[in-house]
């Protein structure tokens, strides 16, 4: 999986993508991340990439030409530029990312992320290059870098070889439509709270049943929307 990120703030992307589990995957060559600095594609002598909005209104808009030239330079760098890559524009106006979308994106070899700033990007260049408008939730952030990082993290952990056995994505929340069951480690008693006996029983079948029950209970309590979808999926609703 090769990510390219078009951004005004490459240092934000670099620092997060070189840390922890994703950083290990980058080091091991399982995924790679390249940033393309939009400031290098300015079309004027001031080095700016934004301008006032036609029709008035607050704030500045990113211009077509710098964004388009940055995009062309990312495409040129692809191993196979003929294969049109997905270009994801991070925007609160997009579909909201979920595990299913992340899994589908994880199947791609190349993904390009376009991070907006200021009041947004001129619509004409978006029409020309963007294949997916994607949001991370119904709230507005100051820029597209954090959403891109969230998306790349969610996608990367589904790429084979990124997680090791202990971190396996299989048992985590959402992979079966349920939230994860509660987990415990030593000590056996803490602040008067005991680890449930069944987890110490060594009976793996019973433990699995217990965990499934807890996952269902937790999902019903905390995310009734997911619980309803899970029931429907099993033909129970
Ligand atoms: N840019 C600003 N807010 C955003 C959001 N919620 N999701 C994706 N991109 C964004």
**Number of E strands:** 9
Largest sheet: 5 strands, parallel
Shape: elongated
User: Radius of gyration in whole Å, from Cα?
Assistant: 22 Å
> How would you state the average pLDDT, rounded?
95
- Range of helix content: 25-40%
Distance between the termini: 38 Å
Beta content: 15-25%
- Backbone structural class: alpha/beta
Can you offer a commentary on this structure?
By secondary structure, this protein is an alpha/beta fold. It has eight helices and nine strands. The strands form three sheets. It has a five-stranded parallel beta sheet, sandwiched between helices. β8 and β9 form a beta hairpin. It starts with a strand and ends with a helix. Adenine (ADE) is lined by residues 90-92, 135-137, 139-141, 144, 147.
Brief digest:
The chain has 237 residues and is α/β, with parallel strands linked by helices. 35% of the residues lie in helices and 18% in strands. The protein contains 8 helices and 9 strands.
């Amino acid at each position: 999986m090769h990510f390219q990120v078009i951004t005004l703030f490459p240092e934000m992307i670099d620092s997060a993508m070189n840390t922890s589990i994703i950083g290990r995957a980058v080091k091991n060559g399982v995924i790679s991340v390249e940033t393309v600095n939009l400031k290098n594609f300015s079309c004027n002598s001031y080095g700016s990439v934004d301008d006032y909005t036609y029709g008035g209104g607050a704030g500045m808009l990113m211009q077509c030409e710098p964004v388009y030239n940055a995009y062309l330079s990312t495409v040129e760098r692809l191993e196979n530029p003929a294969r049109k890559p997905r270009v994801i524009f991070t925007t609160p106006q997009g579909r909201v990312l979920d595990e299913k979308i992340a899994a589908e994106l994880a199947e791609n070899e190349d993904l390009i992320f376009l991070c907006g700033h200021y009041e947004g990007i001129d619509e004409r260049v978006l029409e020309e290059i963007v294949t997916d408008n994607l949001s991370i939730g119904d709230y507005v952030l100051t820029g597209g870098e954090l959403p891109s990082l969230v998306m790349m993290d969610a996608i990367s952990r589904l790429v084979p070889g990124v997680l090791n056995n202990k971190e396996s994505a299989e048992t985590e929340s959402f992979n079966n439509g349920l939230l994860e069951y509660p987990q415990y480690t030593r000590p056996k008693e803490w602040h008067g709270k005991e680890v449930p006996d069944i987890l110490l029983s060594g009976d793996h079948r019973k433990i699995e049943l217990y965990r499934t029950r807890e996952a269902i209970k937790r999902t019903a309590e905390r995310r009734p929307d997911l619980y309803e979808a899970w029931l429907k999926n099993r033909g129970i609703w």
